[in-house]
Write a structure and sequence with these properties.
- The structure is a homodimer.
- By secondary structure, chain A is α/β, with parallel strands linked by helices.
- Chain A has one domain: P-loop containing nucleotide triphosphate hydrolases (Rossmann fold, 3-Layer(aba) Sandwich).
- Helix content of chain A is 35%, strand content 19%.
- Chain A is globular.
- The interface between A and B is large, with 61 and 62 residues.
- Strand 6 of chain A pairs antiparallel with strand 6 of chain B.
């Protein structure tokens, strides 16, 4: 029995902090109601993210990580980056058509599109094949207008103040 | 050994979805790095929140819930509501001065101030007594300017699109 009679499409975008973290919070809430969740991460092959171990404590959560173990720059991607994004896309397809899932998070997929690793039509196709009972969450800054248009729920995380303005760099347990 | 050499003060505010959920995602990340977290919820005595069971799966997380089991309206609070907010304040004080914690979330505390259950000075006092090694997260819409001023990291969740515009009401596993 699925948690959602009619699963919606969420987008968490914007330049502020809290997009991936909000999606993880939804996973906590979902499993707290005995739901089943999957998170497919794009461009996040780096092995030191706190969510890897953190999410492993939760029951009924699958985490799939794709992407190289490096920083990405827009416009500079390798064949391996493209292949990894494609691998993420294929996993996402499987998750979105598997009736066991209540919640599927495609983490940083907006960035993968923005950086040219995926096409907008790839994401629109994923949305179109999603089973009706699955809640789908797309995260990452610079969500394309076509995706915002089709989504049911869109939140823009706006950075009002950030400590890198005070030279604080990314910190373990907070940014990763 | 604390996760943070210098813990910062975050605020998640705004009318959009993702404030409490982002704070829960930070908890996931924190325990994923073997940190210890506490969440004190204000105005959330209702027993059906998914986070209650969801967070219980994570190690080293304490959840303290305060507030009556009902909806709140601004300007209409009972003595019990005030007492519950005060109880939350006292728990928050203990959490923020206990060196075992790496992360302390004061969930909906901005709303408790906005609704007149707490004073701005109560929150500023909490920030001032916080141990330097603790990362403090304050959530809730309508964060007062004085708190934004003193915070290190402020994200405003802006609602771009929400399904209640399509008559979808709060749903289990998503909004609660």
């Amino acid at each position: 029995m699925s948690l959602f009679e009619r699963g919606l499409v969420h987008v968490y975008t914007g330049n502020g902090k809290g997009k991936t973290t909000a999606a993880m919070g939804l996973i906590v809430r979902c499993v707290g109601h005995d739901g089943k969740a999957a998170m497919v991460q794009f461009m996040k092959g780096w092995p030191f993210y706190g969510e890897i171990k953190g999410l492993s404590y939760l029951p009924n959560v699958e985490l799939f990580r794709t992407g190289g173990d490096k920083c990405f720059r827009k416009g500079e991607h390798s064949d391996r980056d493209l292949k990894e994004a494609q691998r993420g896309l294929e996993i996402a397809e499987k998750c979105l058509t598997n009736p066991k899932h209540d919640l599927v998070v495609l983490d940083e997929i907006n960035v993968a599109v923005d950086f040219g690793l995926l096409k907008i039509s790839d994401v629109l196709d994923l949305i179109s094949i999603k089973l009706p009972t699955i809640e789908l969450v797309l995260t990452g800054r610079n969500a394309p207008e076509e995706i915002i248009e089709i989504a049911d729920l869109v939140t823009e995380m706006v950075e009002i103040k950030h400590p890198y303005q005070k030279n604080v760099t990314a910190r373990k347990g907070v940014e990763y």
